[in-house]
Amino acid sequence: MTRLEMVEKLREKADVTYDEARDALEKNDWDMLDALLALKSKKSTAGEKPSSGKPEIVVSRDSRAKEIAGSIGEKASSVVRFLLSAVKKGEDIRIEVLYRDEVIGSLSVTVLALLLICSWFVPVILFILGLISGYRFRFSNKTLTGKMINTLGSDVLQGKEKGSEKELEILHSGNKEG
Question: Where in 112-178 does DSSP place strands (E)?
Answer without folding.
Answer: 136-140
